[in-house]
Structure formats: C-alpha cells, structure tokens
C-alpha cells in the first residue's frame, strides 16, 4: 500500500533547532501561531504570520518538496473556499482565509514532523492525568489518539488502492466495486487491531474486575 502519512504528518528525524526544542516550548509556540493566524484580522497580519510559519517550516529542515505535501488531501477544499470568498468579498478576503488556514496546517505539520509520536502521546497523558478523578483513563486516551493517527492514512490509502484497482479493470464508476473491497479491508483492519490489543492484554481490565466482583 502506498504511503499516506502526509495526511496527518509524520516524524522526520533531524537536528534542527525545532527538533531540539522542548515540547513544552514548541507546542505553545506553534499552537499560538496557528490560533492567532485565525483570530487576527487583516491581510497584512495574516500574511506575516504565514511567512513566520513558513520560516519555521524551512528551519525544521523541510525543503520546497515538502511544502506541498500537507496540501495534497485538501487542495480542492481550499480552491473552492478561496473561489467562494473571492466571488463574495473579493481577492483580499480570499487570501485572508487561505493564509490563516495554511498557517494552521503548516504549524501542525511542523509539530508532527519534528516531534516523535511517543512524545506527543506522553504529553497527552500528562494533560489528561488531572482528569483521573473524574474517571478519565489517560493511557487509554493516548492509545485511542495513537490508533487514530495510524488508522487515518491506512484507511484513506486503502480506498485509493481499491479505486486504482477498479480503474484498471474499467469499473471506476461501479459503486460496488469501490465500496465493498474498501469496506472489507476496513473491517479486516479493525479486527486485526482488536486482536493485537487483546494479545497485549488491553481491554481485559474491566473484564477482570467484573469477574472478580462475580466471584
């Protein structure tokens, strides 16, 4: 199956300043840039924020070839959105919307590209841990996020592979030829994931507690 990690970003080892920056500094920086780029109004401020994010993109060791990767799954959405705002409010409004969205997308991509997934999951566990008193399970929450980050590229890649296979057989317009193989692959992937979790003893905690209560 082809790689689709660009849909949610992928860690790329490196020695750039952003790779070495602690997560407690990097996360507020990138989150702040993304948030402010949507909150601030005006074409010039949003353009400057986008330029700042792009500077960080290159500072992280990502070249021009990596610049378009995050946009591949959403280029049509961005095009339609920009065309609508251009038609309704003019080119200035269209660029403001695009600049804000692109700054958010690149900020998120920089975070994922310069931070190992395990470090992000550890930070999520630490953030959720205070909620344990309300019944939250930080470890399972991190596990769910990790499964999501792994599953999205797989499922999208599975559908793309099925579509290409159907096209090779001349069945690209047959809904059944597209939906059924993708659905079967999704169910199989879910079962394999469930079996892998069960083999590691995950999900047995509650069952064990219930059996103890019955005993």
Automatic annotation (TrEMBL):
Q: Which UniProt keywords apply?
A: Membrane, Transmembrane, Transmembrane helix
* Record's GO cellular component terms: plasma membrane
**Is DNA-binding among the key words of this record?**
no
Membrane-crossing segments per the record: 46-64, 71-87, 93-112
Mention any Pfam family matching this sequence: CbiQ
Q: Where in the cell is it found?
A: Membrane
Membrane-protein topology: Multi-pass membrane protein
Q: Which InterPro entries match?
A: ABC/ECF_trnsptr_transmembrane
Q: Which CDD domains match?
A: EcfT (cd16914)
Is the keyword Transcription in the record? no
The protein in question is named Energy-coupling factor transporter transmembrane protein EcfT
